[in-house]
Amino acid sequence: MATIIDNVNQRLSKLGYINGSRDARTWLRTKVNSLKATPSALMSDRERLRSQSIIGRMYFYYYDPKTKDQLKYYDKFPLVIPIERYGDGFLGLNLHYVEPKVRFILLDKLSTFTNNKMYDETTRLRLSYQTLKSASSIFEATPCIKRYLYSHVKSRFLEINANEWDIAAILPVESFEKKSKEHVFNESRKKF
After folding, report:
1. Could you state, in order of their start, the residue ranges of all structural domains in the chain?
2. Which of 51, 129, 149, 161 is most deeply packed, by most CB within 10 A?
């Protein structure tokens, strides 16, 4: 059974678009609402599920924050690129905290930190919090930096290969609690 991401890849291929190209991104923006993407539909792709995350790769997963009562808002289905690992969790970039067009800008800027230019299952970002702090041109990442505890991850990690990062970034599956995504995007713009 083809998954949402597989279907999008096939449609892009039939149109002759290459993932990451301007034409592919334009098509994705116009078709995103017709894709009928949901967190449960994405998580049904068992071949992509992993028991742990790897620094520099991209993942969807379910999350229930430890401090959710104190948070103004939070994302229950983050799209995260882990950048640093700790004993009890990791620091990551949750792309859902910025609007989709900014996600593309951020991914373009982060592409300078890939370990190779093949954009396949071997590609990952070589990135740390210190690197982000010192790279003033990547200001879009500021509202995306979040700390996650392993004990509050409520599913396996759905791995997204580098050639599919654009597709994952545009899918409207952010699941914010307490505030709307529009509110979150507005708050994030203020942090730029």
Report:
1. 4-191
2. 161
